[in-house]
Protein backbone atom coordinates (compact mmCIF):
# COMPACT_ATOMS: atom_id res chain seq x y z
CA UNK A 1 0.00 0.00 0.00
CA UNK A 2 1.34 3.43 -0.89
CA UNK A 3 2.29 5.78 1.97
CA UNK A 4 0.55 9.16 1.70
CA UNK A 5 1.49 12.30 3.63
CA UNK A 6 -1.61 14.25 2.61
CA UNK A 7 -5.19 13.30 3.58
CA UNK A 8 -7.19 11.94 0.69
CA UNK A 9 -10.64 13.07 -0.42
CA UNK A 10 -12.93 10.22 0.67
CA UNK A 11 -16.30 11.47 -0.54
CA UNK A 12 -15.70 9.65 -3.84
CA UNK A 13 -16.55 6.34 -2.18
CA UNK A 14 -20.01 7.53 -1.17
CA UNK A 15 -20.63 9.04 -4.61
CA UNK A 16 -19.66 5.86 -6.42
CA UNK A 17 -21.94 3.89 -4.09
CA UNK A 18 -24.83 6.26 -4.82
CA UNK A 19 -24.25 5.95 -8.56
CA UNK A 20 -24.26 2.15 -8.34
CA UNK A 21 -27.41 2.13 -6.19
CA UNK A 22 -29.12 4.20 -8.87
CA UNK A 23 -28.16 1.58 -11.45
CA UNK A 24 -29.93 -1.03 -9.32
CA UNK A 25 -33.02 1.18 -9.53
CA UNK A 26 -32.66 1.21 -13.31
CA UNK A 27 -32.29 -2.57 -13.50
CA UNK A 28 -35.47 -3.00 -11.44
CA UNK A 29 -37.33 -0.75 -13.88
CA UNK A 30 -36.07 -2.94 -16.73
CA UNK A 31 -37.44 -5.99 -14.93
CA UNK A 32 -40.72 -4.16 -14.38
CA UNK A 33 -40.91 -3.41 -18.10
CA UNK A 34 -40.86 -7.14 -18.88
CA UNK A 35 -44.09 -7.77 -17.01
CA UNK A 36 -45.89 -4.60 -18.07
CA UNK A 37 -48.45 -4.30 -20.83
CA UNK A 38 -47.97 -1.63 -23.48
CA UNK A 39 -50.23 0.87 -21.70
CA UNK A 40 -48.01 0.87 -18.60
CA UNK A 41 -44.68 1.15 -20.38
CA UNK A 42 -44.74 4.92 -20.93
CA UNK A 43 -44.95 5.50 -17.18
CA UNK A 44 -42.06 3.10 -16.58
CA UNK A 45 -40.04 4.92 -19.23
CA UNK A 46 -40.72 8.22 -17.45
CA UNK A 47 -39.40 6.80 -14.19
CA UNK A 48 -36.39 5.41 -16.03
CA UNK A 49 -35.68 8.86 -17.49
CA UNK A 50 -35.78 10.29 -13.97
CA UNK A 51 -33.32 7.62 -12.83
CA UNK A 52 -31.06 8.36 -15.79
CA UNK A 53 -31.08 12.08 -14.90
CA UNK A 54 -30.18 11.13 -11.32
CA UNK A 55 -27.31 9.10 -12.73
CA UNK A 56 -26.12 12.10 -14.74
CA UNK A 57 -26.23 14.23 -11.59
CA UNK A 58 -24.19 11.62 -9.72
CA UNK A 59 -21.60 11.54 -12.49
CA UNK A 60 -21.36 15.33 -12.61
CA UNK A 61 -20.89 15.41 -8.83
CA UNK A 62 -18.00 12.94 -9.08
CA UNK A 63 -16.32 14.90 -11.86
CA UNK A 64 -16.84 18.19 -10.00
CA UNK A 65 -15.26 16.69 -6.90
CA UNK A 66 -12.41 15.33 -9.03
CA UNK A 67 -11.66 18.80 -10.37
CA UNK A 68 -11.85 20.30 -6.88
CA UNK A 69 -9.65 17.72 -5.13
CA UNK A 70 -5.91 18.07 -4.80
CA UNK A 71 -5.41 14.54 -3.44
CA UNK A 72 -7.64 11.70 -4.67
CA UNK A 73 -8.03 8.18 -3.22
CA UNK A 74 -6.76 6.65 -6.45
CA UNK A 75 -5.60 7.78 -9.88
CA UNK A 76 -7.63 10.55 -11.46
CA UNK A 77 -7.97 8.77 -14.78
CA UNK A 78 -9.39 5.73 -13.00
CA UNK A 79 -11.92 7.87 -11.13
CA UNK A 80 -12.98 9.41 -14.42
CA UNK A 81 -13.14 6.03 -16.15
CA UNK A 82 -15.18 4.45 -13.36
CA UNK A 83 -17.64 7.35 -13.23
CA UNK A 84 -18.04 7.31 -17.01
CA UNK A 85 -18.57 3.54 -17.17
CA UNK A 86 -21.24 3.65 -14.46
CA UNK A 87 -22.94 6.46 -16.36
CA UNK A 88 -22.79 4.43 -19.60
CA UNK A 89 -24.58 1.50 -17.94
CA UNK A 90 -27.46 3.74 -16.92
CA UNK A 91 -27.61 5.43 -20.32
CA UNK A 92 -27.87 2.12 -22.17
CA UNK A 93 -30.58 0.78 -19.87
CA UNK A 94 -32.61 3.97 -20.27
CA UNK A 95 -32.16 3.85 -24.05
CA UNK A 96 -33.48 0.28 -24.18
CA UNK A 97 -36.64 1.19 -22.27
CA UNK A 98 -37.15 4.28 -24.40
CA UNK A 99 -36.83 2.28 -27.62
CA UNK A 100 -39.42 -0.26 -26.49
CA UNK A 101 -41.88 2.59 -25.96
CA UNK A 102 -40.97 4.60 -29.06
CA UNK A 103 -41.14 1.55 -31.33
CA UNK A 104 -44.42 0.44 -29.71
CA UNK A 105 -43.14 -3.09 -29.29
CA UNK A 106 -46.04 -5.36 -28.46
CA UNK A 107 -44.01 -8.40 -27.40
CA UNK A 108 -40.30 -8.70 -26.73
CA UNK A 109 -38.65 -11.83 -28.12
CA UNK A 110 -37.90 -14.76 -25.84
CA UNK A 111 -34.41 -14.32 -24.44
CA UNK A 112 -34.65 -10.62 -23.64
CA UNK A 113 -35.67 -11.55 -20.10
CA UNK A 114 -32.38 -13.43 -19.78
CA UNK A 115 -30.47 -10.35 -20.91
CA UNK A 116 -32.23 -8.24 -18.31
CA UNK A 117 -31.70 -10.84 -15.57
CA UNK A 118 -27.95 -10.72 -16.29
CA UNK A 119 -28.00 -6.92 -16.07
CA UNK A 120 -29.94 -7.02 -12.80
CA UNK A 121 -27.41 -9.39 -11.26
CA UNK A 122 -24.49 -7.28 -12.49
CA UNK A 123 -26.17 -4.20 -11.00
CA UNK A 124 -26.50 -5.89 -7.61
CA UNK A 125 -22.87 -7.00 -7.64
CA UNK A 126 -21.70 -3.53 -8.62
CA UNK A 127 -23.68 -1.89 -5.83
CA UNK A 128 -22.20 -4.37 -3.34
CA UNK A 129 -18.67 -3.76 -4.64
CA UNK A 130 -18.50 0.04 -4.60
CA UNK A 131 -18.26 0.39 -0.77
CA UNK A 132 -15.36 -2.10 -0.86
CA UNK A 133 -13.25 0.41 -2.78
CA UNK A 134 -12.41 1.89 0.63
CA UNK A 135 -10.60 -1.24 1.77
CA UNK A 136 -10.10 -3.09 -1.54
CA UNK A 137 -11.49 -6.20 0.13
CA UNK A 138 -13.53 -8.85 -1.74
CA UNK A 139 -13.13 -7.08 -5.08
CA UNK A 140 -11.65 -9.97 -7.11
CA UNK A 141 -14.88 -11.92 -6.64
CA UNK A 142 -16.71 -8.93 -8.10
CA UNK A 143 -14.77 -8.49 -11.29
CA UNK A 144 -14.49 -12.23 -11.93
CA UNK A 145 -18.26 -12.69 -11.64
CA UNK A 146 -19.12 -9.63 -13.72
CA UNK A 147 -16.78 -10.83 -16.47
CA UNK A 148 -18.50 -14.22 -16.33
CA UNK A 149 -21.88 -12.51 -16.60
CA UNK A 150 -20.69 -10.51 -19.60
CA UNK A 151 -19.65 -13.73 -21.34
CA UNK A 152 -23.10 -15.12 -20.57
CA UNK A 153 -24.66 -11.94 -21.97
CA UNK A 154 -22.66 -12.42 -25.19
CA UNK A 155 -24.07 -15.91 -25.63
CA UNK A 156 -27.63 -14.75 -24.97
CA UNK A 157 -27.17 -11.91 -27.44
CA UNK A 158 -25.95 -14.23 -30.19
CA UNK A 159 -28.91 -16.57 -29.65
CA UNK A 160 -31.30 -13.63 -29.77
CA UNK A 161 -29.84 -12.46 -33.07
CA UNK A 162 -30.20 -15.96 -34.52
CA UNK A 163 -33.83 -15.98 -33.36
CA UNK A 164 -34.53 -12.57 -34.90
CA UNK A 165 -33.15 -13.64 -38.27
CA UNK A 166 -34.96 -16.99 -38.44
CA UNK A 167 -37.70 -15.60 -40.67
CA UNK A 168 -40.41 -15.22 -38.02
CA UNK A 169 -40.28 -11.41 -38.04
CA UNK A 170 -40.65 -8.98 -40.90
CA UNK A 171 -37.68 -6.80 -41.83
CA UNK A 172 -38.83 -3.64 -40.01
CA UNK A 173 -39.58 -5.55 -36.81
CA UNK A 174 -36.16 -7.20 -36.98
CA UNK A 175 -34.49 -3.78 -37.18
CA UNK A 176 -36.44 -2.50 -34.16
CA UNK A 177 -35.86 -5.55 -32.00
CA UNK A 178 -32.21 -5.85 -32.98
CA UNK A 179 -31.55 -2.29 -31.86
CA UNK A 180 -33.09 -3.04 -28.46
CA UNK A 181 -31.15 -6.26 -27.85
CA UNK A 182 -27.95 -4.58 -29.08
CA UNK A 183 -28.37 -1.75 -26.56
CA UNK A 184 -28.93 -4.26 -23.75
CA UNK A 185 -25.71 -5.99 -24.84
CA UNK A 186 -23.92 -2.63 -24.67
CA UNK A 187 -25.13 -2.27 -21.09
CA UNK A 188 -23.53 -5.63 -20.26
CA UNK A 189 -20.29 -4.47 -21.93
CA UNK A 190 -20.39 -1.29 -19.83
CA UNK A 191 -20.68 -3.36 -16.65
CA UNK A 192 -17.57 -5.23 -17.73
CA UNK A 193 -15.75 -1.91 -18.16
CA UNK A 194 -16.77 -1.01 -14.61
CA UNK A 195 -15.36 -4.32 -13.36
CA UNK A 196 -12.15 -3.93 -15.36
CA UNK A 197 -11.63 -0.44 -13.97
CA UNK A 198 -12.14 -1.69 -10.42
CA UNK A 199 -9.54 -4.39 -11.11
CA UNK A 200 -7.11 -1.76 -12.40
CA UNK A 201 -7.63 0.34 -9.27
CA UNK A 202 -7.09 -2.66 -6.99
CA UNK A 203 -3.88 -3.67 -8.77
CA UNK A 204 -2.47 -0.13 -8.64
CA UNK A 205 -3.34 0.36 -4.98
CA UNK A 206 -2.21 -3.04 -3.71
Low-confidence stretches: 1-7
| Span of the ends, CA to CA | 5 Å
Mean pLDDT over the residues: 93
- Rough shape? globular
Compute the number of helices: 6
Elements, N to C (H/E): HHHHHH
Q: Quick one: how many beta strands?
A: 0
Question: How would a textbook summarize the main sheet?
Answer: none
The helix/strand class is mainly alpha
Rg result: 18 Å
Strand-residue fraction?
under 5%
Estimate percent helicity: over 70%
Family: Belongs to the UPF0111 family.
Protein name: DUF47 family protein
InterPro entries: PhoU-like_sf (IPR038078), Put_Phosphate_transp_reg (IPR018445), UPF0111_domain (IPR052912)
Report on the structure:
The termini are close together. With 206 residues, this protein is an all-alpha fold. The chain contains six helices and no strands. It is 78% helix and 0% strand. The chain is globular, with a radius of gyration of 18 Å. It has helices spanning 11-34, 38-68, 76-102, 112-129, 139-164, 171-205.
Amino acid sequence: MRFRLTPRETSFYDMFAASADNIVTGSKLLMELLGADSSARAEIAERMRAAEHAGDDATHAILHQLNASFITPFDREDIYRLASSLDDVMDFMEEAVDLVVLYQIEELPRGVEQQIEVLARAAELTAEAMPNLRTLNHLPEFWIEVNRLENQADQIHRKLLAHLFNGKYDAIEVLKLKQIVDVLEEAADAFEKVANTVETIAVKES
